């Protein structure tokens, strides 16, 4: 429960700080809004880039796993063929 309260407190503090920062900003409202939009776009672009990197890693890992599965299946087929030859089937 303490962790939850801490997280809520931190997020609340961030929100209050952002509101106060906008209210007391020395810049014009239009400039402040542009900065907020630009920062939001930067965060979004960064998130997209990180998500793309993670998805690429997952894709590479899935290809590796698929290759290993194909190798195991191929080895199993070879083993079965050899076993059939030895047993004369």
TrEMBL record:
Entry keyword annotation includes Membrane: yes
Keywords assigned by UniProt, alphabetized: Membrane, Transmembrane, Transmembrane helix
Superkingdom of this protein's organism: Bacteria
Transmembrane segments: 6-25
PANTHER family in the record: GENERAL STRESS PROTEIN
Name by which UniProt lists this protein: Gas vesicle protein
């Amino acid at each position: 429960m303490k962790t939850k309260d801490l997280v809520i407190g931190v997020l609340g503090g961030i929100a209050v700080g952002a509101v106060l920062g906008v209210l007391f900003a020395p810049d014009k409202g239009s400039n402040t809004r542009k900065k907020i939009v630009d920062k939001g776009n930067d965060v979004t672009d960064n998130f997209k880039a990180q998500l793309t990197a993670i998805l690429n890693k997952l894709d590479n890992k899935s290809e590796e796993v698929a290759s290993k599965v194909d190798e195991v299946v191929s080895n199993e087929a070879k083993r079965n063929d050899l076993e059939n030859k030895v047993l004369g089937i």
